Structures are given as structure tokens and as C-alpha cells.
Amino acid sequence: MNRFAIALPCALLGAALALAQPAAPDLKGKTLAATFDELQPGIEKADKAAQQRWQDICNAAAAPGNEKVRAEACTLMAGKLDPKTPAPTRLWMLTQLERIGREESVAALTPVIDDKDDVVREAAVRALANNPSPKATAPLTAALKAASGQHKIGLLNALGHRADATAVAAVGAELGSADEATAVAASRALGRIPGADALAALNTTKAKAKGAVRKAVADALLAHADRLRKTDAVAASKVYAGLNSPDEPKPVRLAALRGIIQTDGDKAGATVLKILSGDDAGAKAVAVGQIESLTAGALKTLAGSLDKLTAPNQVAVVTAIAAKGDRTQAGVALSAAKSADAGVKRAGVLALGRLGDATAVEFLLDAMSGKDATAGDAAESLASLPADGVNEKLIAVLKSEKVPARTVALIGILERRKATAAVSELLTAAGSSDATVRRAAFAGLKALATPAAVPDMLSALLKTPKGNDRDQAELAIVAVSAQSAPEKRAEPVLAAISKDAKLAPDLLPLLGRLGGPAALKVVREAVAGKDAALSAAGIVGLCNWPDGTANNDLLALAEKGAADEKLKAVQALIRINAVLIDRTPEERLATLGVLKKAMALATRDEERRALLDGIGFVRHIETLNFVLPYLDQPPLAQSACRAVVELAHSKMLREPNKAAFVQPLDRVIALCKDKGLVDRAKQYKEGR
Question: pTM of the predicted model, to two decimals?
Fold first, then answer.
């Protein structure tokens, strides 16, 4: 056998084992004790380098697998906790022991919790509180008897933090302390210690406690109940019941009430009903807030007696049931939706949108067609109904619907539901004789159709009168066609024209919106042809062009066309070129050249202002030079200011040309009437 075949797997195994080993502290060839002795003087002098070096060693030692090094490091530090070590150093060592100390530190920490220095003593208590060894509890409990004041409170807090049941007797003995702060701390500590003994001690004290202690005991009992709720609902319910008393502070009582509802299981429905039938606003708020967490049985009880509640409470319950999203309660929503009370009816209609299924469609459609305030809510619910079969039901209704207003509403709902299966019916509706239906259908197709539907959309387009409706229909086709590759977008229109040349005057404006080399060829031929109608349609298509590939054609039209054609051509050049898009420096310069020519051909200040408003997006230093003279022309100065600021916005342009921007920005600050632009100009001048 090849020895390398054996060596390679062994090497890989060795590497894997090495990776699995925790990183040991880097002692640079020395022992841990020697390293500690070397760093000790620096640590005592608060030398940051020495302290950081030892802290790094402690961090590495605390990693799993370095237990022997960690224990040794803790033992070394524990040896420096006696009063001979300066207090600041002891505090620093105690902080490290708080993080990484274990059983080996307990004995050394024990005497320090009675230290004369208050700060050192508190640090030692914290170190024991956070020590994971069970042996760390005993020193803290032993120190309780002799301690007083803040020291005793600190010990109680530490024992609460440890949550060790062996401390219950010692902590419980402090519940009857004459010092209120101590008794409060003991109560809180017992609240954090789980188990029957701590609970019993708190219950015993509760009957005789007063004031702040009584409140602390109640809070501690709530903490026990909240823990028990996860493991023993019956026991938790008993604790909650004891706290749901008029004698308790309102926050405690309401918290207990919440717990009772959460632990009552199927009985909680009756509990909530009883609360909602009462007069306690706080309790009602708690009950309504818990409806979402009720069991199915509890919810059934609550829903079955809904009519026994006042209208505002019915609204609250129906709304909460809807938020829970349990569709088995759709009947509750439907019943509420038929209520004579407007508020309950509205809540029911909205709840149907969360809980209903296809069977609710007819009801909601009728509600949507009504004249009351729930019509809009019914439409909302129809749009959000989550169940299967809803789209199919709506499409079937749309197919047979004769009322234009309802048809429009149905189309809007199907669009919001993203019901692509409705495209066929929308195509039919797009050919409707009713303008509102046509507009809604094309809007729906714009959102739902795929390029496969474009030929049928063209047929509907040809039935649409020219004007705004035709424009919107064309834009819908453009949006759907945009799902195809750019070179394929015009194919359905070109195919239709090829099949029937008579359609060209109607389709050339749309062809221009779609663009592409083949479309441009057809449009150019139409513009240059002798057929006046065809030429006019071609010019419209040219002015609709989506990109810069028709710039030269538009420039020629702007120069030689009729007055209205010149205006439209200049407007098209501005629309196409004065926009923020990614361009190479060469492309920016070429675009600037086009816009310069457009400016020269513009005959109205309106177009000149529009060009200046957008030319700032053509980010080239020559653009700045072109804009500057217009700062001196009052009709155009404000638009020129906007262009300068927009150019300065680009750091890639501004930073290499700082000197060139100083004077233009000063001019903007002096001339501009738009405070926002002035503020931006100041920022850019400062280099921000």
C-alpha cells in the first residue's frame, strides 16, 4: 500500500483534531504562575497593557476544554484577595472571578463578602452570585444573619439571582424583618426561587404583610404563578385566584385575572363572558386581550353567547376572534355582519375577510353593492379572503355580471387578489362598450396579464376610443410587454400590422412606446411616407419613443417639423434624455450634445425650463459649463439653480472639480428661492 495513502488521511484527521481543540492561552513559553507574577505589578499599577494581557488569558482559559488552566488562573487570583492587596487590584481580580470563577474560587471569596470596604464586599457578593457552583450559595446564606442595611439587601438580591432552593429558609426568615427594604428584597428573592417552599413562605407572609412588602409579595407570587403556568396549570390557577381579590392593587389583580383566563382552559370562555358583562373597564380590557389565546372550546362558549353582550363588547369580541384567525368561527363573523347595529355589522364584515371562505363571497358582494358604510369594508374583505375557491367564485360572478359599477368593483378586487386566472374575463371586459369597465379591465390586465395576452389586448385596444382611455390601454400593453426581452416586445404589434396594414395608423403610437430596432424602422418609413394619416401616426410613435435610439429622428423633427410637431419632439427629447440613468462618460457627453441641440430648437421657456430641470442628471463637467449662462436669464435662473445643485449632488463629479463648483454654488445660494436647494448647495460647498 502506498504510504502516502495512509499519511494523507492521518494528516487530515490530525488537522481536524487540531481545529477541534480550544485555543489555549498564549503564555509565550512560560508557566501560568510565572506569567501572573510578571504581570502582577503592572496590574496593581492599573497598567492597561498588563491588565489586558491577563484578561485575554482569562478569556482564553474560560473557553470549553481549558478547564485546568481556568481553575489555575482563578486560584492565582483568589490568592490576591486578602487585605494586603490594594483595593483597586482586588476589585479588578473580583471582576475577573465574577466572569470565570467556579468552585475553586468559593473558599477565597467567602471571607471577602464581609470585607470592611463596601465596594470590595459588593464585588465579592456579585462574584458569588454569578458563580455556577452549588457551593456558592452557602456563604451568602450564612452571611445573612449578621449583615444589615444595604449589605443584607445585596445578599438577598444575590440569592434571588442564584434561584437556589437551599436558600429558601434563610431568605424566608427575612420576610418578617422590621426593615421594610429588607423584607421587600426578601420577597423579590423568593419570587425568583422556584419551588413549593418559596411559594409557601410567600403565602404565609401575604396575610400579614402591608404596604410595599405586601406589593412585593404579590409580585413574587405572580412570578411563581407565571412559571407554574408552563408546567402545572392547576397550581398556577390557585395562586392567581388568591391574587384576584379586591384587596390587591389593581395591577396585581388584573395580572392575576389574565393568568386565570390563561389557565382556565375551556372554562375561560365563561370567565370572559362574565367579565365582559360587568362594569370593570380594566378587567374587560384584559379579557378582550386574551381572546386570541383561548382554546377552541372556550371560544365556542364565548361565540355562542355573543348576543348577550352590549354592542361595543360584541365589536371587541368579534375583532379579537378575527385577529385569532380561527376560521371555524366564520359563523360568528357572518352573524355579526347581519347585525342591525352598525358597529357590530362592520366588525363582522371585516372579520369575514379573515375567517370566511368561498361561501361568504355572495354575502360580501351584496354588502359591497349596498349603500351603507360597510360597502367599502366588504370590498376589503373580498380582497383579503384567504380560502380556496374564492377567486373562481369571483370570476364566475364577473362573467355573468351586467351592472358596470359591480363589474368595475369585481375587477378591482380580482386585481388586488392577484387572480391571474381572471385574465380571460378581463380581456372580454377590456372590449366592453362601457368606458369605466374598459379602464378597470386594462388596469387589471396591466397587473395580471403575461405577454401571451398581448394579441388579445391589441384587439381590445382597437375598440377603445382615442384619447386618455387609449393612452392608458397602450400603457397597460407596454407594462405587460416589459416582461419580455426588449427585442421581442414589439413583435405582436409588428405581426398585427404585417397581417393588416390598415391597422398601422392605430398601432404606430403603441409601437413607438415599445421601441426596438424593427419598430423604429417601421415608424421611420411611416414618417417619411406620403400617407398623411400614416405619417401623423408615425410622428406620434416617434414622440412616444422610450430611449435614445430615436434621438436623431426627434432632432430632425424638432428642426423641420410643423410647429406642434417641433414642440412634441423637443418634449420627447427632454423626457428621454434628461433622466438619471447609468451612463459612461462618453454617453453622458453624447447625451449632453443632444440636449444642447434640443435647447437650441426649443421655442418656449416652458420647454427650456423642463430641460434644465432634468439636465442635472447628465453628470459631466461640461453640463455645468452649459448650465452656467442660464443663471443670468431670469425666466430660466431657478431651473438652472436646480441643475447646478443636482450636478453637485454627485460626489464623483464634484470632488475632482471642486474649484469649478465654488462660484456656481455661490450663485445658487444668492439667487435661488428654494430654501431646500440653498441648504443643499451650502452642504455641497462645504464638501458634505
Answer: 0.69
